[in-house]
User: What shape does this take?
Amino acid sequence: MTPAARLAAAASVLDSIAQGRAPAEVVIKAWGAANRYAGSGDRRAVAERVYQVLRARGRLVAAMGGREDGRALVVGALAFLDNLSLEEIEALHSGEGYGPRPLSKQERARIAAGEGDLPQTATDLPAFVVEDLKATFGDRWSEEAAGLMARAPVDLRVNTAKTTVEAARAELKATGLTPERTPWSAVGLRLPSEPAPNVQALDAFNAGRIEIQDEGSQLTAWVAGAGLSFTPDSIVVDYCAGGGGKTLALAVQGLPAADPARVAAPSPAGWSPTGADELAAAKSEPAAAPMRLIACDVVQKRLDNIRPRLSRAGVAADLRLIGQNGGGVEEFNGKADLVFVDAPCSGSGAWRRRPEDAWRLKADEIERLHALQLRILGQAAALVKPGGRLVYVTCSILSRENEAVADAFEAAHAGFRPLPVADALAADTITDAARTRLAGAATGGRLRLSPASTGTDGFFIALYERRA
Ligand SMILES: C[S@@+](CC[C@H](N)C(=O)[O-])C[C@H]1O[C@@H](n2cnc3c(N)ncnc32)[C@H](O)[C@@H]1O
Assistant: This one.
């Protein structure tokens, strides 16, 4: 494809993203599948242009006079992000071949008026989100806003029941990747986002030695379980298990660590043994969990999807379909040692991975989520035993889904006392640096993580202990 044809393709992919609800990643893949003439370089270039626009969408719309169509946004990106001259942009819009049609008079005027600068007043986030960020972060709001739209690295969690962090790192290095240790999770490895690593194709992934999980997401599980000693009789409920990312992290807590002497080092020629043998070995290992772990959700398909992940990781959980009102787990009422509520939320803390979602979110949706979160947290609280722990988590950056839910829960549940986060950082999976940093960042029983402050996705954690 010519550079001009790639621009036209990016504009049409952006229009498809705007018209539907599918993730940008899915729309880009579908475009590649439907246009077989596009080679891997073309697909990469189109994807890069699409994400460049999505991350700067608010400012580009403002710079292009309010136009939201893919063509205008791509023209804006060339002018204001790539800083091409009018002549260069016109050359890419000759209308020949599969390239975009020539610039209109208005488009030329926009480029000239912008003089290569995006409007200072425009932001990449919807106005109601900006207001929320200002209220929460004060002067730091724009730093937090920028963090939400920046590119994210690929974080991995090493399954220490199967390997050690250094052995996993060496294994990944042997495949040509460049993993670094994560600063806060002691079992995390970080890969650069560029070039995008195909983690799912790795033996280490298929044999359950590593999982893809943002460092912030890992921390929510480590903080939730920190200081608790699990026995096979302990009952841990992952109330909103979803894709099972945190279920897996909760399950490995307290499992005996892999014996470093039995963890093979990669041979100079690469990692060995590989492929099917390793996968079969991983599957035949007995599943284990140091506690009775119950993973619930209201969607059966989500629970079904956790099964292969548990099997890869070599851990066990009881998967339970529950009703919207919590029916299906009554037998654990007042009996659980730990109830983890990773509530449905806007996902705004992960917008750096899915920037298209920022513009799909409407203010009234936040009100619906707030009510749902409060209801789910109240239902889940009934399962906690006296002296047991309740953990509320969102991957949202918005106060209405975070502090406001915690405030309302506390007002209605005097039987739960906030548990200081600083007292819940004693876990081998948390680095010493994190212990100091997170204790300082926490406000009593509440902790916020964010791209700008911790270099992770945005998360909110509130810890409670049920009074005896
Ligand atoms: C944020 S996601 C969970 C993500 C998951 N913990 C992970 O780490 O991959 C929230 C989940 O809550 C589930 N959910 C929605 N309403 C619920 C309810 N009333 N009770 C329990 N779970 C619910 C959704 O189906 C969704 O899978």
